[in-house]
Records
---
Amino acid sequence: MSVTCIASSGAVIGEQNPALNSDANHENDNSVALLIQFAGFRYFTGGDIERHTETNIAARHLVLNVDACKASHPGSDTSSSLEIMSDLKPSVIVISNGDHGGFNHPRKVILDRYASMTPPPKVFQTNKYTKGPPGGNVPDEFIGDLETIDDDGTILITVAPSTAQFFVTQRRWFEHVLAFVGCCV
């Protein structure tokens, strides 16, 4: 297993003289972005990074062709830029969202962006969004917690290292295995 820190505090690996992000308006870009590799499986998580940091990562083509990724800044319209999604090309995207607060995540425009990718990834989200536009939802069978009143919104990705396959499980953990999702490259 290897874990590579791709970005931290607004600085992207390989940048010359990075301008570290101290602006409170861009606090999300201070998140740690990681590429995790295990037995041929590649997973990217950008935390809450937004378009600025995503663009810097994509400009250097630091993360290409992952099997799965966590949607940065829970599917906000300030993340999941075309540039980074074109590099990542995930077969699975997990949106770790809540139905609380006024953030309206995931945004419908981002769900539409994912659906327009070729090939389109399977998109899962941890909690059903109930507050209306501009937020949206994936189909119910891909949502971990439909009621959003408890803590069963877990999405689990399991890698079988001997076969280089991975599986996505959600809701009552091993009671609801959605499908074999892909093969590690």
---
Amino acid sequence: MSSKARLFLVSLKATVSILVSACLSPPEQPRVEQPPSADAVQPPTPASIEEKKEPPAKLPTPTGADVRNAVARMYKNAVLMDSERFCVGDFHGDGIQDVAVLVRPSQGSLAELNSEVANWILEDPKEIVLPDPTRRTQVLSHSEPTRVEQSDTLLAIIHGFGSAGWRDPGARQTYLLRNGAGANMKTQLLTDVLRTLQGNASVRLRGDVIAESISGEPGFLYYTGAKYVWHKISADKTVTSKQNEQHFL
């Protein structure tokens, strides 16, 4: 037998042996995943469970000394508190407590109070004209800058900052309003005033308001997001808020 024939027979036997082994081998069984141990199973956290947040700390009842310190911090010696007349509320509409207090100019401070670079915003809420929401085209009128006189009684409003509100040293935004000081000043909650307005589209409130009577006319001061504006209302629609009378001293 030639060498080529012998090599062919050897290759044929090897091929037949591999085929026979494959036919005789049992088929591979499917792998079954074993269940995890009891220690490895952790119960899922219910989706309805949320982290509970601590409610904001209740601020102490304000005193005349607290307000006097805030006024001195903001205005230095430019104004003095006019008796102990003030009220607190969220006038800014940001959830932080603000304070409104009656003040009067100190002697020799008119130049500082009327300065264009003062740290406060000096305005007359009765002179501010708001855009008419029913008109697409608005005509803006130019008004002269507000000027403080020595005999004026002014309303200072200090916007709060942080959890301490207007008491916080970081509270730096303040408004000084001429013709904004009135009688029977008190805070009225936003919800109370909205019920009284009954959908009045001309008044868009952001927070609580300062209710009072100016020159015998009842109304309230409210914040527009940039300015404080006077809104006059009839006497029979004036809302009283017993919840906030304790803030008036």
---
Amino acid sequence: MNSAAPGLLLIATFLGTLAQAQDAAPADPHAGHVMPAAPAVDHSQHQMPAVPAIDHSQHQMPATTQAAPDSTLPAGVRDPHAYANGYVVGSGAYALPGGHAGHMSSHVYSGAFVLDRLETVDSAEGRATHFAIDAWYGRDFRRWWLLSEGEHTSGESLEASTELLASRAVSNYWDAVGGVQLDTGDSTRSWLSVGVRGLAPYWFEVDARLLLGESGQSALTLESEYDLRLTQKLILQPLAELTFHGRSMAQHGEGRGLADVHMGLRLRHEFTPQFAPYVGVEHSRQFGDTARFHRQQGEPTRDTRLVLGLRLWF
């Protein structure tokens, strides 16, 4: 054997051992070290503060300002404030600016002046001028009324009837009225006047008045009218008026019982609720002793006439 072989074998063995030592993973310096266990924490005595309960029973949303519909209104009745700012001519129940339904405080004073009719009339007796005034002032439930109606025919004296009345609301739709009436013209008479004014179901305006005069004179007048809206601006207004007398008064051309019936039909255009021109037709007829007195004086007992007029209110 070669004498160098043992040396080379020793060198190869040393190099192999060194290579294995380099490839081995380094040892963990914390091997064999054990961390002590963390002490357990007892949370059984620790409690979060309770959240106080909130009582919502006293918390309410503010009530709406719009009142619920009145379920007591008759079927088919229309809202009295649906047009003209709630104004209804001739009716104490809904006259501007509030009504007995609670739209105003009863302590507020207000008023209105209504020229309900200012018209020229073409009749059998000639051309005439007719007027009707309806004015009031007061509070929501108590008011003073000035009512005047008259007619002037060319060549004759002015025939007029004027009433000063006090009214008190007796329901949402009716006023009780009382006062005095003065008739002027060919003769002058005064009356004690009592009655009711208001709205019947379905918006018929009603005015019923009992008149008590001198020497046992008495009269009863019933008047009703209705506004039928054909369009928002065009209104057809039928009207009927009946007059009864308690006794015959030949000097005044009045007979006992049903004296006369007056009917009218007017078509008006409301440019605004305060300004409304109109055209119409009227028919009147006398009955009983009243008709007989008129025939004796050479006057017609029935008449149909055309009217052209204007309606204003302030």
